[in-house]
Amino acid sequence: MHGSEHPLGTDPPGIGLIGPPGMTGFANLWRNAERLAMLWLYAFIVLVIVIEVIRRFVFDFSSIWGEEAARFAFIYLVWIGAAVGVRNRSHIRFTILADILPPRGATLLSMIGSLAIIGFAAFAFYWSLEPIATSLRFGSVSEGLRLPRAWFLVAVPIGFTLVLLRALGVLWADMRAFRANQPPPSGEKLFD
């Protein structure tokens, strides 16, 4: 899709948010929070890597915390990006069957896909809590930053919570399309 079709900060047509339509302030925050978090995390990663390259090749000395800080920021970035992919419907999916079905059939197929994402996200969220509990119980810390490892392990349940919420929003949009006998909203294409 072209950048002019979906200005920065708006959802593709038909992709709804969770909550009543009158929540414009909250909806804008909800819509842009992930993008802002991804921007800050990406900028942090680039800054840390540039500093570490300069330190290593100019001063012949590198820190023990730089690589670890960039790695953990990247983990958060990936999980937030997964939620954005679900929201924009730009995640990998097979559409050959949906392309030949009538509108209600294609929408029903999309709803089944959303339910599968919701089920997997709930399952993964549940199983991601045990490592955090273990880390808190034994007081484990990260090697370089010496911060509680639970701060970094919590990225997984946060990410799956965001994926779950975004999948619920997509399912809600699909249900509206199903009632209106329309095909599911197409979302954004990453590649043509």
Automatic annotation (TrEMBL):
Residues that span the membrane, as ranges: 39-57, 69-86, 107-129, 149-173
Record key words, sorted: Cell inner membrane, Cell membrane, Membrane, Transmembrane, Transmembrane helix, Transport
One Gene Ontology term of the molecular function aspect: transmembrane transporter activity
Major location (coarse): membrane
The keyword ATP-binding is annotated on this UniProt entry: no
Membrane topology: Multi-pass membrane protein
Domain Tripartite ATP-independent periplasmic transporters DctQ component: 45-176
Subcellular location: Cell inner membrane
Pfam families linked: DctQ
UniProt cross-references to InterPro entries, sorted A to Z: DctQ (IPR055348), TRAP_DctQ (IPR007387)
GO biological process: C4-dicarboxylate transport
GO terms for cellular component: plasma membrane
Similarity-based family: Belongs to the TRAP transporter small permease family.
PANTHER family found in the cross-reference section: 2,3-DIKETO-L-GULONATE TRAP TRANSPORTER SMALL PERMEASE PROTEIN YIAM
Summary of subunit composition and partner proteins: The complex comprises the extracytoplasmic solute receptor protein and the two transmembrane proteins.
Descriptive protein name: TRAP transporter small permease protein
Species name: Roseovarius halotolerans
